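Comment thread on ticket #2218

A.B. wrote:
> Attaching the input chain for the structure job we discussed in standup.
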Amino acid sequence: MPVVGKSQAKSTSRRPERERTIARFSALALLGLALTGCRSHDFPQYPANYREYAYVTNGGSGTVTIIDVVNVRVDREIAVGQNPVAVAVSPTRNEVYVVNSGAAGAQTGGQTGGQGSVSVINAENNTVATTIVVQRQPVSIEIDPNGDLAYVANSGSNNVSVIDLKARRQVAVISAGQGPDDVRLSPDGKTLAVANRLGNSVSLIDPATGRQRAVFEGCPGAASAVILPDSSKTFAACSAGHQIMAIALARAEAHPAQHGPAPSVAAQPDRLEALLDVGQAPVQLALKPDGGELFSLNSLSDSISEVIISTDDVSGATMIGDGPVRGLVSADNALLYVANFRSQYVTVYSINDGKRVGSAHVGDGPTALAFSASGQLLLAVDARSNDVAVVRTDSLSLFTLLPAGRAPNAIAVKAFKLR
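C.D. wrote:
> Ran it. Output below, let me know if you need it in another format.
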């Protein structure tokens, strides 16, 4: 029997390991080539100066997680104020606004007697540019189409702060009902609709004068106001009950003049149009981009109700998931995506077919949703598992899970090109 020397034995024992290592690297290289080849089909090809970020507010850690949507990865996590609960992006500047429901941070000059704040994030470098003190316990924000003014509902002080975004300061405070939960500006800029959760009412305010035009009571736990694209109606979810309040907004109506070519104008006041029966605990209203229909997310009924805007008819209820809390309609008005908080699923409802057509497995406790600018990705904020699920909208497959801070609760996406 031939004798094998030490060096020969060592070389022989290493050969299988080297072959396995080479095989692994070859497989990884082939996988990388495959992914590179598929990426142009899966995602848009962006110019070098294109940026797109998702901003996720983490209520439990006082931070915002910033996700690089182009490369589908966490860019960074930055500190803001205490208990951030809402976020909005500027339509005209590369800025993002975060509502901090707790006390203002030290960068505003110290504690301010329980007042909240709005952190302004520079999206070009993803740092906090400044923090603006508002009133007590702010909970929602609305930006005007020009990006000049922000309206912040202050639940703890029963009012709405008006912020001059260029001057970086609060310039007015408008009285609202008790515990305002949501504020919306009509597209024509003539109405602020404020849903007063504790006041069980909806306030309509003239933003030009800051005066209250009307108050409509009888909406228990009023929340989630929406206004139609033509500024003709506003709806509010009565979250402590089982109804939606529909209000026709004031407008001027032209009538033929008896003398001369110019028409005379008669004003139609704001009026309660209907109280629509839906499921139990409607916590959010999702409006189609074309304004033709809206959907009530009935959290305690595990259902959605479809409302036909033109007739104020509720076409019926569809069982959708365990604890629906957030809905988002696709840009083509075809699909409604529903986050079911008491589950790990986002359900998809076909609006044209009137039925569920699929679901995506995400993290635990999905509570907020946003599309990427291309619409090819859906980002679901998971409040209980402290992460963000990235889902392909074409296949409803989970692309990845990205870590967030503690108790994430809201999300907004900002896309822009650097100059």
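A.B. wrote:
> Thanks. Noting for the ticket: The mean pLDDT is 88.
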